[in-house]
Amino acid sequence: MKSKYLIAVTAVLAMVVAACDAETEATTTTAAEAVPTTSAAEAEGPPTAPSALTAEAQESDGTTIVVASVTLPAPGFIAIHGDDAGSPGPVVGYSDLLPAGESTDVTVTLDEPLTESGTLWPMVHIDVNENGEYEFFPPDETIDGPGVDDAGDVAVISVEMTVG
Length: 164
Prior knowledge:
The protein is of the alpha+beta class. It has two domains: 33 residues; 118 residues, Immunoglobulin-like (Sandwich). A five-stranded mixed sheet has the order 2-10-7-4-5, with no helix packed on it. A hairpin with a 3-residue loop joins strand 8 and strand 9.
C-alpha cells in the first residue's frame, strides 16, 4: 500500500513540476525576442520611413538646386550633400523645414555657390527632435537623421548640375 501511495505522490509532484515548467516556458522571452526592432530614437521620435525624392539633371547659376518632389513621413528637410568620389559628401545646403507628406519643386539654396559642374546628392533628413531646426553636420552634430525608403535604404539620389 505504501508503494502505491508513494507512486501516486510522485506522479502528482511530477505533474506540478511539469505544469510550472510549461508556465515558465510560456512567459520566458529569449534574448533575441527582447531586442527591439527599432532604435530608441525611432521609438521615441518621428518615423523615418517611407521617404522618397526625385530630381532631374539641371542647369543652374550654381547657387540653388531644385528637387522635383520629396515625400516625408514626418516634418523634415532636404539636405544637399556634395560629391565625395561618387558618394554623398559634406552638407553644402539644406531646405527650410518641410511638412510631412509630399512637397514639390523645392528650391534649396547652397551655402556657397558652385564654381563648376558636378554631382550633388539631395537626401531626406527627418527633424528627429522635432524642434524645426536642421541639425546634421557630421561629425559633431548628427541629430536629424536620414529618412529611409520602403526597403530601409537612405532616401538619397544623385543629380548632375551644370553650372552655366
